[in-house]
Specification:
In chain A, helix 1 runs parallel beside helix 8. By secondary structure, chain A is of the alpha/beta class. Chain A is globular and about 90 Å long. In chain A, a hairpin with a 6-residue loop joins strand 20 and strand 21. The mean pLDDT of chain A is about 95. The first copy, chain A, folds into four domains: about 190 residues, FAD/NAD(P)-binding domain; about 120 residues, FAD/NAD(P)-binding domain; about 120 residues, FAD/NAD(P)-binding domain (3-Layer(bba) Sandwich); about 100 residues, Rhodanese-like domain (Oxidized Rhodanese, domain 1). The first copy, chain A, contains 16 helices and 31 strands. Chain A has a five-stranded parallel β-sheet with strand order 3-2-1-7-19. Chains A and B meet through helix 1, helix 3, helix 8, strand 22 and strand 23 of A and helix 1, helix 3, helix 8, strand 22 and strand 23 of B.
Chain lengths: ~575, ~575
């Protein structure tokens, strides 16, 4: 029997997944993985937690669920897959269905032939083209050797100050890891906000929290890494500031590794990732690609995106493993770009489109709300969740959700991801049937309550105002009446301090005479989370006030300094 | 202006929600709640946690999110709702749109008229008609006074032994609460399993865990409560056993309170709940009903069910509040009966149909799988989840999911609830785009992996065998070959001990000669969670064995005693 020959280039996530799936579907195929690094199947998303000391056994990054290190021997014995490490594939000869490789330790060269080829070459950390980038003490956090380097720094405990360049997901995870290692951190971001998958107001809330753990500098880039004797001593910013530090971690994003594919004439998309069809097949029908090196469709916009997420790499790898054996039977539809990251005690997650992103993509009938509440009852030590929901007003389709806070963010994002991927509307979510018991949620789950708020807004029951807009109006001294409708003790404890008047909700109906007689007066109401603010607005509207707004998310979603 | 008169009968969950929603939609309506008990808006699902000492301030059961007790004064001031407590509505005169009531403290009678009436009379705990039911020390856990009674027992610390009658949700929550109060518990269930919303094998796993905390007695009912001087001293079972105890909590389910409605000629459904249409409207167009006293459609079977869940009560109340003001504009579609309960450190949840339930409902093309894995990576201290998924083979529609374990059960159940309510198929779940980062999930989320296992089974890639079936075969000494494919150290630590042979997956291909030559031999393979078991089965099948099965869920889902 003539067995099928499968070659997989890359041994991190998508590659081993494709190889393993292929093996399970065909015991007779000859399957070989060529891996440039010395390790295989690394849990690279776990690096920050290894560095931060959440666990100490490095092997755990390389283990199967049963605790066996996934090395070449494991792949051979358990899966009959030939995994060749320390070996770089240097060329693909599509005509002869052959690859060339070099052993990086011995320099030995060789070649191998395939029936089906799988490219899973991953991505590389981008580096800014500035002076001093090669100094000792400047690193990225992309490879296991990067993780080893940073973990060693933790274990040695000598370094006191570090700069993290880049306020994206990896930058912020690195920030936590190094903070836990006892290092004082400054995080630098070129853009006006952290975590660009969030809308600015949500990012601002994360920033406000992160500032309790690290120095955050926005709208500033690195112009040079300064050093002495080849060692980093400071980071120099665009505005001239020099920040003394012994370590700098550059985390300004990743680029797909496509040189090998490109040189072989494989089509590259406009995002820089390898172009694949729904079967994860390149323009060469015998060559498939998956993971961080490809681009895939965003399911909401239909446009291609580079989405280097570990979960997608695995799912894509599974599809490829099936298709190389069975022919094109499995499809990978694309992504809604669901992501989450841990920021100390906060979860920060997003799925679908942010408002900013939706506007950029040409959606011009967007409605948004911000909803804040506990994740479960106060008596069960519920923790705060803040959700921003983005919908298309015309059909009430849910386009995106961002969730942050110390509460159960991951569950909320999962719920919205299910809603968005399956084209649900706000009305579909209003009576969602989710698991309720006090140890797990409020009687009306935070996600459902968010849908209720959105439904009320779409029905015109209230108008909202964002924290940003209110702050600007307040700075401009716009004529308006501001009402905090909480209780006096809550007000005493903490307030926005922007000229608001305290009228507790329970007194509002009796104190309407304290408001201007002009029913066109702009009135803005709020409470802690804006539930009572909503009730107040309904009362004021019923009494004829035409221009009443609620501060969305209430005081807990106010991203600025508050005055006592 | 002639304001609308709304009367709500019942002030627990659905009633206040309906009244509050009505108020927000109509500032001018006259809204009155008549409440039999002395308290309003009680968080009744929180009672077990108050009794168990998760919190000590009873007021927290009655508070708004802002910490204000929701008493009559609160309803009047904050919502302009007249909430009349300690007052029982004794009759509804539909012709004259009038109700009659009695003040339970003073005996005073009165009447009131309505334009729209809302019945939210809730449910009552069922009691077995046996001797001694009125002894001191025999109680239910349904009302706040029940909770007060049990909390006092905790605080006094005198009682040593208690019996919980009923192994349903409330029974098990009560079990935990009393155990935390330092009381030795025996739980009695008439049926052959606990928690009948679970399939037997899943319930058996919960039972096995619960046995580490309490004595569990199945297939046995209470025939009498025995006492001395009016005080409980023991519970007598059907099999004659007498269990000495000073406290018995009866939790054998609840019945909808429908007497008032029935007497007024409101139609009652076959489940005993008030019949309502999709607008939560009874057969009298001016009378709506919601909460534990109604029956609603199960969205999968289309049949009416009595689903006394706190979350549904709130959602139904919201729909009613809208409809009594706006006319029939809002619909409540029904339920997929999603539920969850905390069982000490386990979460136990279910959504949609169990296999048992699906078979009873006439589905005859059911497929099921059991999948076990950690909820997040081992290096992030992931905890076990076990999921049983039920699908309709003919269209691969997901019908139900049960999830148990110390892992993040609530999130898993929420994901499946979203899938089931929105009619997703297994293929829709295979590439779900869920939030991944190591602090929150595996790279392939447990739910997605469960869909993968199901897809593999539907494609015929493997055959499963349930723990129960394997145990029976093993007891019958059926001719078969049993293979544990884990590593020797795992095997040494713990094994099923039912005659299995250890052949680690990595050695399987080399040791095929140890297997019978007859390719029709029944071979059953497993590992800890049956992932390696699956790989082993694929190998054996590739080598011609035609009758290979995997023990579903592996060793962790084995619900029986194991031998060392």
């Amino acid at each position: 029997m003539n067995s099928k020959k499968i070659i997989v280039i890359g041994g991190s996530a998508a590659g081993p997944k494709a190889a393993s799936r292929a093996r399970r579907l065909d015991e007779n195929a000859t399957i070989t993985i060529y891996q440039k690094a010395s390790d295989l199947s690394m849990a690279s998303c776990g690096y920050p937690y290894y560095i931060g000391g959440f666990f100490n056994d490095r092997n755990q990054l390389l283990c199967s669920p049963a605790g066996v290190v996934r090395d070449s021997k494991f792949f051979l014995n358990a899966k009959n897959i030939n995994a060749v490490v320390n070996t770089e594939v240097t060329a693909i000869d599509r005509k002869n269905k052959r690859i060339e490789f070099t052993n990086l330790l011995t320099g030995e060269k060789g070649s191998d032939t395939y029936d089906k080829l799988v490219i899973t070459t991953g991505s590389s950390a981008r580096k800014p083209p500035v002076e001093g980038i090669d100094l000792e003490g400047v690193t990225t956090l992309q490879s296991l050797s990067d993780a080893d380097y940073l973990r060693k720094i933790r274990d040695e405990g000598k370094i006191k100050k570090a700069v993290v360049v880049g306020g994206g997901l990896i930058g912020i995870e690195t920030c936590e890891a190094l903070h836990l290692a006892g290092i004082e951190i400054t995080i630098i971001e070129l853009l006006p906000q952290l975590l660009t998958f969030l809308d600015k107001q949500m990012a601002r809330l994360v920033e406000k929290y992160l500032q309790t753990k690290a120095n955050v500098i926005l709208k500033n880039g690195v112009t040079a890494f300064l050093g002495e004797n080849g060692k980093l001593t400071a980071v120099k910013l665009q505005n001239g500031t020099e920040i003394p530090c012994e370590l700098a971690v550059v985390a300004i994003g990743v680029s797909p590794n496509t040189k090998l594919a490109k040189n072989a004439g494989i089509e590259i998309g406009h995002t820089g990732g390898i172009k694949v069809n729904e079967y994860m097949q390149t323009n060469d029908p015998d060559i498939y690609a998956a993971g961080d090196c490809v681009e895939i469709p965003n399911l909401i916009t239909g446009k291609s995106v580079h989405a280097p997420y570990g979960d997608l790499a695995n799912l894509e790898g599974r599809v490829v493993g099936e298709n190389v054996i069975m022919g094109n039977v499995a499809k990978f539809p694309g992504t809604i770009q669901t992501g989450i990251c841990k920021v100390f005690d906060y979860g920060v997650g997003s799925t679908g489109l942010s408002e900013q992103n939706a506007l950029q993509q040409g959606f011009d009938t967007i409605e948004t709300v911000v909803n804040a509440s506990l994740d479960k009852p106060g008596f069960m030590q519920g923790k705060l969740l803040i959700t921003k929901l983005v919908v298309n007003k015309t059909n009430s389709n849910i386009l995106g959700a961002q969730v942050i806070g110390p509460g159960e963010v991951s569950k909320q994002v999962a719920i919205w991801a299910m809603a968005i991927k399956n084209h649900l509307t706000v009305d579909d979510m209003v009576n969602a049937d989710l698991p309720y018991a006090p140890p797990y949620s409020l009687a009306i789950d935070h996600s459902i309550a968010t849908a209720h708020v959105m439904q009320n807004k779409l029905k015109g029951l209230f108008k909202g105002i964002s924290a940003k807009e209110l702050r600007e109006k307040s700075k401009n001294k716009d004529p308006m009446v501001l009402i905090d409708v909480r209780n006096p003790d809550e007000y005493e404890e903490m307030r926005l301090g922007i000229g608001e008047k305290l009228i507790p909700l329970g007194q509002l109906r009796k104190r309407l005479n304290e408001l201007p007689e002009d029913k066109n007066t702009e009135i803005i109401a709020w409470c802690k989370i804006s539930l009572r603010g909503y009730e107040a607005a309904r009362v004021l509207q019923a009494y004829g006030y035409r221009n009443v707004k609620i501060l969305e998310g209430g005081i807990v979603a106010w991203p600025y300094q508050r005055e006592k």
